[in-house]
Input
Amino acid sequence: MTLGISGGLVYLALGLLLNPKAVPNCPEIFVPMSSASLRVYCGQLAASKQTLTDLVSALNLVKDIPANDPTRGYVDSNVQRWSLSILRLAEATYQEGNYDEAVNAAKTVPQNVPAYKVVSKRLKQWQETWTKGVALDKETRALLNSSKWVNAYSVAIKLTRLNNRYWATTKYQELADLVQIAKADSAKLDEARQLVKTQDVKTLLKAIEIAKKVDPKSFAQTEAKTLISTAASQMLKLARAKLDNNDWQGALEIANQTPEVSPIKTELQDLINLSQALSHATNTSIAELETAISLVQGIGANSSMYQRAQQSLVAWQLEIQDLAALQHARNLATTGTVKDLQTAITQVQRIPASNPRGKEAAQVVSEWRKQIETVEDTPYMTAADKLAANGTAVGVQNAIAQLNQIRPGRALYPQAQQKVQQWTAELQRAEDGPILTQAESLATSGDLSAAVAMAQRVRRGRAMYAQTQERVNDWQAQLQAANNLASAQRLAGNGTPEALLGAIQAAARVPKSSQLRSQARLLMDNWGAQMLEVAQSTASSDLRRAIAIAKVIPESTSAYGSAQSYVQQWEQQLNPQPTPTQSETDSDSILGN
Output
């Protein structure tokens, strides 16, 4: 039978060689309708290529040939041989790391061939090894994700002990490289970890910059992301603090530099929107306020910015209403008539003081009221100017009466009172000027007492009071100086040293600015000389009395210097130096030589 089958195949092959047109197209044959010999031929042709795909195709071509077919025995011997070839190639594929491909190929080996026992055993070994490899890979990566570099490497090195070239070399090297890269990147992050502890924006940005340089494929990327997230959260807090202090510009500056990491992305955007809204709201126009409102309307109730956003939104809505009312009122007030100004005031007064524009409303009301008061009181100012223009006292008095009709607190009241004071002063100068002139005339004639009495008729608070009082003070000083000098002359009349000393002291009280000062000076010198004469005349009878008189002569007199010389002379007479003895003289002579 074997010879017959072989002969048949040889005959088929020779026929195909001799007749090329009769060569079958094996890839396109319809297996159920093909003869066993043709399938065996195509199977051998495919198996001869010695690839997994072709060997599997060869098995598939002959697997359905019936057991009673004459070619079955020949087929079984080929199937055994092809199965071993499949197992050999599947093993190589498995060692290269193509586990599924290798398993699928090995499973094509029929269970009824002797080679299947080897295949089954090998499949079990592959599965156990591959499962260990997958588990070790998973464990290593989990440790890398936890930044446990030493533990990760200890697990990865176990791959080298697996009976699989892919896990022991390629996969091990891949994980070892990942461990080294992650460890190196983690070391780079040490500086960034210290920087994140600060509360300075520039320092936090530097930490973020360092973290961003970590390779995205590195397992240290988890640490880097955590660090970036921490730094971003710190920056958000700093920006929030700026916003809480109404520094929306500072808040925006920080927020625009903050990375949009997942944990804070929504809150960061809310802060930016709120800060931008506050920026628009500062421009105080309805359009800008509407833009501000649209920005905060998107801030959700779960946001930490929600409460502030809602408070601002309500305030801005009120402000828009107030701005519209103010604009309408200003348009009315442009006419400048009392009626329109009063209407504008009525409208603006409806804005509550607690509203955002309450202060501005109160300010424009005050301005318009002053404008109304100016319109109402200007006729008084005009009439007063006309009355005062004629220059008569009656005209000025009537002008003052006109201005006094402008009540305190009115817009023109300060200006009116300034004119009242000016014109009142002019009237008072006209009334008091002759009094001062007459007083000065009396003073010139020497009647200072009469001059003082006349000048004191100018009352305190009058326009010329200060000027008049200055002259009165001068005249009174002159009177006092004259009194002091007269008193001094009366004292000096006694002629005693005590009287003369009192006279000098009284004359010294005449002010230096007084016209009598030169006369007082001469008298003081004269009385000092008299005291010295008394001292000299007394020295012949009472030396101690003479010294006492000379010592009290005032330094301000011309006799002072001479008096001091006499005092020294007379004291020496009272206390003469002892005369040296002859022996003392001889000793002094010897010592001198």
In short: Confidence is low (pLDDT under 50) at residues 1-22, 583-593. Residues 143 and 151 are 7 Å apart (CA to CA).
